[in-house]
Every structure is written in structure tokens, then in C-alpha cells.
Amino acid sequence: MKNEKIMIIDDEPDMLENCSRILERSHYTCITTGNPLEAGRLFSSERPALVLTDLMMPKKDGMAILRELREIDPSVLVIVFTAYSSVQSAVDAMKAGAFDFISKPFSADQLIVTVDRAIKQKRLEEENRNLRTQIETTYGMDRIIGSSMAIRKVFELINKVARTDANILIYGESGTGKELTARSIHINSNRRDKAFVPVDCVSLSENILESELFGHEKGAFTGAHISKPGLFELSDGGTFFLDEIGKIKLSIQAKLLRVLQEKQFRRVGGGDLINVDFRVISTTNIDLNRAIAEGKFIEDLFWRLNVITIEMPPLRERQGDIELLANHFVHEFSRKNKKDIRGISGEAMAILQGYQWPGNIRELQNVIERATSLTDSQYIMQSDLHENMLDHSASLEQIKSLPFKSAKRKWLESFEKKYFSDLLKDANGNISRAAQNAGIDRKTIYRLMKRHGLDI
Ligand SMILES: Nc1ncnc2c1ncn2[C@@H]1O[C@H](COP(=O)(O)OP(=O)(O)OP(=O)(O)O)[C@@H](O)[C@H]1O
Ligand SMILES: [Mg+2]
Questions:
Q1: Ligand lying closest to the C-alpha of residue 327
Q2: Distances from the Cα of 357 to the Cαs of 235, 275, 400, 447, in angstroms?
């Protein structure tokens, strides 16, 4: 249990020196400060396992430090030093979230026993958390992380349909994990030993798409020097994955429908009929019913492809998974970039959880990748996140666990920022007009623009 980092805050230099000497003899590493105003910054950058703080200090008392640190990291472990006579202050500190207290004066043994106990407790909690993550991840399929109700429904559906031969249509906004789900169905199916053949319907133009799908015989068109099997043939026995099916032209849709009905086809340029057996999994992020109504999608093909529908929930509807996913990506990128990043600070996590994620899991993945490469500390901090994520950060859900005053401040800040950016937008950046509309003077507007980093 040694070598853990311990931060000590006390305005008496003697206390700092004695405590760190005792603890270092016990193989702890100590960081000390006599300036309580520095505590928050030091805590953020050093991320100690435990904080020891005096309660009575002139510039800022221990209770205020306790609150500040808990705002940075709600799970912070704090032990307070109290004066022998002041039982009440110890009780108050425990109520405010301190782990334990030691009354002054104390012996070296008392200090070590109390610190050891706190560290042991922290270890236990971390182990529990890891265990929980492991359970949650194994519940997820293969590499699909998640434990929210919304994603569990998807897992259940995958389990139910993977071993059937039914064609599957996966609906979902971009970045929600459609392709990952398709691959997971394949891996869990009886076809797992055969090919999973992905076709990107967006990037293949109409001409290429046809010869790619059907293959061609030698001399079928200029440049066709040899005959070549198409993707249908390659997916025989396996899974044919049509990504963004809504983007296929009508003429190809008709040909695809024929193959699905007859399970046989000829390569471009003639030749023998070729029999194929594959299962189709397709994805779309547009409403195919509407495409049908507009005459852009063949209804029969739709029914062929859509025997079973899987809808991927957007990330904003599975907020409970944000923490799990974010931590998963931190470990992934930390390993990939050979860094030693342990996790995400409480503040940064609150922002991730309050954000709307229009780009869903892919966006979260990108944000974490960027933050892991930017950060200098062992934890991803608020400053490692993109400025524009902070705009939408205050949601009631996210701030309700904060102390009232900071919750109110955050709420007000985000209200002001939104109010004034909308105000400026509506006034086309005309400050006088904005001032008039809001019934305040221009100076106030300039001041608030500056505070919130808004420009015209
Ligand atoms: N539940 C999840 N657990 C872990 N990683 C995930 C999960 N869902 C998606 N991802 C990752 O997020 C990224 C986007 O997923 P995927 O490509 O499957 O989404 P998509 O819906 O096909 O996106 P697009 O519409 O942009 O093609 C991938 O890198 C994928 O590995
Ligand atoms: Mg995709």
C-alpha cells in the first residue's frame, strides 16, 4: 500500500515537515503546501490519492478546501486535522464529506494508522469499480460497450437474431455503432467462419458498384482483361454488409432485389448462373419509408432487407453509458499512445455527461483521443476538452449533485452565454440593436461577451 501520493495542506511549516517526514518513512510520497489558496490547483495537477488538511487556516479554511476539492473530484479522500477541543468541527467536516479526522496533537502512529486505513479503503473502492466495469463490459457483446437499458435491448435482439438467417436492417444516426453491431451479429452467427463483406454504397459510383457486386467476365467492358468474381460471390456462405443502403441508385436496387429473390445471378458480361447464399445486413441513417414514398427506394427491396429492424439509440438517450464508454476510450488511447492516463476528472466527466453528442459514439471517441494526446496530467481535465463542448455543459442532471452555490453559478453562466449568443445572432452582430432588444446598455453587452468569449 505504499508509494501513494499524499497532499498535505497546513499553514504551520512545522506540521508540514513533521507529517511528511512520518509518512515518507512509511514510504508514502508527500506534496505539501502552506498556502490553502493553492490547494485546488495543486490537487488538479498532482492528483494525490489522499489529502490531509488543517481546518483552521487564515486565508481559506479546511471546509472550503474540502468543498472545492469535492467539486473537482467527488470521490476525493480527505482527512482533516482538528483542534483537540473542537469536536463539532470534526463532525461538520465528516458531514461535508471528509473521510476521517485526526485531532491535534497526534502521534506518528495515529497518523499512520489513519492514513493507512483511508488508502486501504480507496483501494477497495477502486477494485470494486474495476470489477463492476468488467461485469458491465462482459455483458456487452464483443467490443460493444454499454449497460444502459437502451443498449441492452440491442444486445438482446442481437442474441435472438444472430443465429437466424433473417436479413437485418440497422437504423441509426451516424456514429451510433451500426457497423460494430453488424460485425457483432456476424461473429455471433453460424456464418462466422465465412466472410463478412462490407460494401460502402456511398463511395461506390453506380458503374463501379454494379461490376463490384456482380463481378464481370473477361471482355465485359473496356479494361476488363480478366474475369473477376464480385462481392456477392465472395460473401457466399457469409454475411453481406450494405452500408448506407439508402444511397443506392434505383437501377441497382432493382438488380439487387432480383438477386435476393432468386439467390442466383450472372456476372456482368454474361456467363453461367451463379448460386449464392448469404445473409444481408444493411444500415441506413435516412428514413427509408419516406424514400419509398418519394419514389427513391423500391418497396419490395425494403421488405426483403428489413425482416428484422434494429434501432441504434443515439448517445444522448443512453447517458448512463457515457462514463463507461469514455473510460473505455481513455484506456484504449492511453495504451495506444503509450501514456499513463488513469481516468477523467470529475469536472471533465460532468461536461461529457451534459453534452448532447450529435456525432454520437464516434464523436466521443474523437474527443477522448484528442484529450488523451493533449493532457499532461494523469487525468483528463476540463481544459483538455474542446471549448465548444462547454457551451452546452450545464444541464440540471449534471449539476444537481454540486453544492448549491456552484450549481447556481454554473447554471447562470450557461444561461448567460446562451442568452447573449442568441441575442447577438438575432441582432446580426449589431451591438446597439442587441442592447436595445435586451434592454441593457452596450457596455454590459461588451463585458458579458468578453466574459463568455463571444464575438460578433
Ligand atoms: N458501444 C460501443 N462500444 C465501443 N465502441 C463503440 C460502440 N459503438 C460504437 N463504437 C465505436 O465508435 C465508432 C463508430 O461506430 P460505427 O462505425 O459502428 O458507427 P456507425 O453507426 O456505423 O457510424 P457512421 O454512421 O458514421 O458510419 C467506431 O470506432 C466504433 O468502434
Ligand atoms: Mg458506418
A1: 1
A2: 35, 44, 20, 30
- Closest-CA residue to 233 (of 219, 245, 216): 216
Residue ranges covered by each domain of the chain: 5-134, 149-311, 316-396, 403-451
pLDDT digits (tens, 9 = 90+) for 331-347: 999 988 888 898 898 88
- With 0-12 / 13-18 / 19 or more C-beta atoms within 10 angstroms meaning exposed / middle / buried, residue 126 is middle
Tens digits of residue pLDDT in 219-252: 888 888 888 889 999 999 999 999 999 999 888 8
Q: Return the higher-pLDDT residue of 30 and 126.
A: 30
What is the CATH architecture of 403-451? Orthogonal Bundle (1.10)
pTM value is 0.63
Task: Enter the CATH code of domain 149-311.
Answer: 3.40.50.300
What CATH number does the domain located at 5-134 have? Answer: 3.40.50.2300
**C-beta of 179 in contact with ligand 1 (< 6 A):** yes
313 close to ligand 1 (CB < 6 Angstrom): no
315 CB within 6 A, ligand 1: no
Spatial contact of 293 and 246, defined as CB atoms under 8 Å apart: no
57 vs 361: CA distance, rounded Å: 46
CATH code reported for the domain at 316-396: 1.10.8.60
- 369 Cβ closer than 6 Å to some ligand 1 atom: no
For residue 151, how far is its CA from the centre of ligand 2 (angstroms)? Answer: 17
Contact (Cβ atoms closer than 8 angstroms) between residue 299 and residue 248: no
Q: Matching CATH topology for 5-134 and 149-311?
A: yes
Helix (H, G, I), strand (E, B) or coil at 7: strand
Angle among Cα 339, 129, 29 to the nearest 5 degrees reads: 55
Beta strands in 316-388 (DSSP E): 343-344, 379-380
Cα(284) to centroid of ligand 1, in Å? 14
Cβ atoms of 297 and 256 closer than 8 Å: no
Ligand 2 centroid to residue 281 C-alpha, Å:
12
What is the number of alpha carbons within 13 Å of residue 79 lying toward its C-beta? 25
